[in-house]
Input
Amino acid sequence: MKLRDKVVLITGGGSGLGREMGLTFAREGAKIGVNDIRPESAQNVVTEIERVGGSARTFVADVSSSTAVKKMFSDFLAAWGTIDVLVNNAGIGRTRDTAEFSQTWEVPDEDWHKMLATHLDSTFFCTREALKAMVSKRSGRIINIGSIAGTTGLPFAAAYCAAKGGIISFTKSVAREVVMHNVLVNCIAPGFIETPMTAPIDEAMREQIIAVTPAGRFGEPADIAAAALYLACDDSKFMVGQIISPNGGYVI
Ligand code: NDP
Output
């Protein structure tokens, strides 16, 4: 087992990539804190992990709130005493049901702020709390979920791309800062993956995306969980501030 008794917190762990990472890490012996904004999502994944013999607990919080994140970490450390791996994964593809693709000149302030807060503020808030525990014990891993949106840019998604680009730069900065404390910070920048977030993409656009993806398909959550497992375990102990991008060749 690659993560025996490691204590992991996955934000947005109640769906899609977070769920898959939770199940994968649990199979490798980790205890999983499943954060989500919706209690039922988090609880469903905890139940799934327990059903396969793993250990997990829910930590319901809106990670875009600094206060909620502080409370979540206090509850997490009270429950498990430590944190070995943080995965900053929580995210949204759009800020409201009707706002799938937005012209930048039409984006309202509140949508911009919500996108940045959900992805970038949350990554900072959770990283800040995790580092307090990890630096003092001189051990830890932080895995940030970026996106190809943050490396190449995608049209009609300026706030999402800005948030993901920010996460990538944040990763590089913090990685340099804390490697001396034996805390390794890296990022995964997935391409298009089949999850509830990409479910609204219509058939015509799906075909266009697949046509420019050399692998000829969307990725599966397992493609990302495998990269996350690598970054969480000892195999990656020389990886510092790197951006790994499982994307089927969409970006080369
Ligand atoms: P999902 O929508 O399946 O999962 C995201 C989860 O995060 C949901 O359960 C969501 O809850 C939760 N969440 C949203 N906001 C918050 C919040 N403020 N606090 C706590 N939890 C929250 O999406 P994916 O699994 O696809 O996405 C996971 C990450 O991967 C995201 O950061 C996304 O940007 C990134 N990504 C995804 C790609 C893809 O193709 N799927 C490609 C590249 C990056 P709710 O359901 O209520 O919204």
